Amino acid sequence: MTGQLAFVESPVQLLNVLEWAHTAALQDPPRLQAVPPQPTRRAPVPATGDRDGTRPGGQDGGRAGAPVPPVPAAGPGRTGPGDLTVVVLSPTDPMSRGQLRRMAQLARDEGITVKWQDARQGRGAVVRTLRELAGPLRSADRVIIGDPFSRYVQLLLTLFGPRRVTVVDDGTATMEFAAQLARGERLVRWHRRGSRGPRELVLAPVTSMARRKLAPGRHRTVEIFTSLPVEPPPGTTVLANDFSWTRSRFGPPRLTRGADLVGTSLVETGVVDPDEYLRAVTVLARTHGATRYFAHRRESAEKLHRVAVETGLEVVRPDLPLELIARRGPIGRTVVSFPSTVVHTLPLALAGTGVKVAVCEIAPEWLRENASPRAQGFLAGVAGTATRTERLEFG
């Protein structure tokens, strides 16, 4: 088996695959070598045609549903990123698709092969995608995934048994994945309630098999590449992500006088009450003199409209992951966030710039009545382990 195959479903996952490739090159040059940095200060962002970032004429780096070729073997003349193929299992929402298009172009600029797979569009898309990816999966020596909780990835894992698995960050779920793997538990997202509905029961065998494929064994190594504080489960290795690729390609940013707020999808995932969230954003903006609100890609248009109207903040919908947006600048001298991945990643991406990152914890009374019992403890852990941030008292 030869080659390295990555599956990504979000812009942050693709960013962290780029970070992994860069870090692997620094630690093991013969295995993977990064393309030297370009002389420009900022990496180019491609022009787009329609609202979701698709180029005119459907030129998205590969026909929708086109077969993915076998993973190229490493050998003379094929070192470095040429040995890595990234398959984008495209989501359906326009903002995620647009960010993924732009991230895909940045990956191509690094010499990495990117294949776009419209895996969720049209009848039979799932079956067609699984059939087209079966061959490349079987030939891959290493498989890199960004979301072990993804039903799509779990279905893919039933097709093969890779010798080497790398899990990269797609948010704070990496912490829960490591904990569940260590405890031998089934894979369940932290914000889901414990009850198992009909869909979960049907997919239970798939989830169970995927968990076995993600566990280290005699014929399989498992690596977690993360910027989060993760205790390595028995038999796994943890490789630290310090965002060195981002810092080498972007910035340093110009700093503004005020503060910026970072949005979260905790309302959309059913964890936080929307009225309590808006009240908290209003108080934080007034207290810290914030002028901009960087929206999470999953925040609803209705909620963002309320943010703009009720707080007076300028709502910004980033076209790239926030780590890159902040590094390009301009960015506030203070960045305020609720508990999320960015309270761990932004201090790394903005190291040496003088930007202060602050985290505001979620008060128990903000939670919805039907929120997962684990939500409060998990979010407190995300905030409490962010050692490079300032803790805020809400009032």
Features of this protein?
alpha/beta, 7-stranded parallel beta sheet, 6-stranded parallel beta sheet, about 15% strand
3D structure, described in words:
This protein is of the alpha/beta class. Helices cover 35% and strands 17% of the residues. The strands form two sheets. It has a seven-stranded parallel beta sheet, with helices on both faces. A six-stranded parallel beta sheet has the order 10-9-8-11-12-13, sandwiched between helices. α8 (274-288) packs across α9 (301-311). It starts with a strand and ends with a strand. The model is unreliable at 29-81 (pLDDT under 50).
Secondary-structure map with pairings?
Blueprint: E1 4-8, H1 11-27, E2 84-89, H2 94-109, E3 113-117, H3 125-139, E4 142-145, H4 151-157, E5 164-168, H5 173-183, H6 198-213, E6 221-226, E7 236-240, H7 244-249, E8 255-262, H8 274-288, E9 290-294, H9 301-311, E10 314-316, H10 322-328, E11 331-337, H11 342-349, E12 356-360, H12 375-384, E13 390-392
Parallel strand pairs: 1-2, 1-4, 2-3, 4-5, 5-6, 6-7, 8-9, 8-11, 9-10, 11-12, 12-13
Helix pairs in contact: 1-2, 4-6, 8-9, 10-11
